[in-house]
Amino acid sequence: MLFSGKLFHCGCVAILLITFLSCGSAHDSDEYYVLVSANLQVPYWQTAGAGFSKAAEASKIRVSFVGPQTYDPKAERDALDQAVQKKATGILLAVTDPALLKDSIDKAVAAGVPVITIDSDAPASKRLFFIGTNNYQAGFTGGQRLAQELKGKGNVVIFTMPSQANMQERQRGYKDALDRSPNIKITRVVDIQGDPRITFDTTTQIIGKEKDKVDAFVCLEAQSGKEVAGLLDRYNVKGKVVMAMDTDPETLDWIQKGGIAATIAQKPYTMAYVGMQMLDTLYHHKPSSLDGDWSKDIYAPVPSFVDTGSGLIDKTNLDSFLQAGKSLTSAPR
Fold first, then answer.
1. Distance of CA 120 to the CA centre of its chain
2. Could you give the CA distance from residue 279 to residue 271 in angstroms, rounded to a whole number?
3. Helices (DSSP H) in the chain: which residue ranges?
4. Which residues touch 14 (CB under 8 Å, ≥6 apart)?
């Protein structure tokens, strides 16, 4: 199988069974669910939005997908606050800045609006639980492949956004995998701050001044991989390894061309699809409180973490991945 991962805890399976068996036709006209994110124009989040809408489609539940068109944590916070003001039944939140969003998450839960995080978590908040990738494992998988590509020796630059917990975990996974190859060194970690222009400028600088000192570029978010690959191609720089994240169409094109060695694919469609189902279930089967510390409760009505899986895509399985995507988008809706 292309993707792997421990899918759900037993409690999560029970919730899904309840959803399928007892919630299919019992929906209120005032139910209203919201997916809040940032960078809405990015294909990754468009895929998540499709999963969110698809999960609500059969039951004709009202949904909205809101947030800024760029990476803007403050604007995302405003969109979250507005969703609460509009009396959303439940909110699915893709966390950009966990510290900035914490108070708004806590206020939403205090107002009786369940908040589930996807893709990146805010564990210090009162969000109910997290749905997404085991990001440490995703990074470790990428690190293992990078070590193979470098044949155990080389200098590595990492592009990331260290304020996000998911990227912290990915970087930790890469580091632990590369620690097994002592001649591979992470020489620089660049905070791109959600702006691909920083990737562009930094890579241009590296190509111009340090061409022989950097052997690999690791991109822990969706936008940097294609920027790096494009610049290396433009300046005809050969022999560099690029590891990407996610399945932006341009990233996949560069894999086909050989400019990117591999990317780690997540499942944003699944994250949002399952998140929508769980929000609906929480509305129809309300827990006694949204404020409990369920992570320590062995009888909790929800899981602490739902791992939707991830997988490595390279030239060997790119065609099968693309075909699977076409089958999904062409299926009757």
1. 6
2. 12
3. 10-22, 43-57, 73-85, 98-110, 135-150, 165-178, 196-209, 224-234, 249-257, 268-284, 318-330
4. none
Considering only CA atoms, which of 71, 70, 126 is closest in space to residue 96? Answer: 71
Tokens of residue 89, six digits: 């039944």
Give the model's confidence band at 332: pLDDT under 50 very low, under 70 low, under 90 confident, else very high. very low
Which among 265, 286, 320 is the end of a domain? 265
Q: Is residue 59 part of a domain?
A: yes
- What's this model's pTM, rounded to 2 decimal places? 0.81
pLDDT for residue 324: 80
Q: How many domains does the chain have?
A: 2
What local confidence, expressed as pLDDT, does residue 65 receive?
A: 96
Beta bridge mates, 310: 4
pLDDT (average), residues 127-155: 97
Give the separation between CA 85 and CA 80, rounded to whole angstroms. 9
- Here the CATH number for the domain that contains residue 168 is 3.40.50.2300
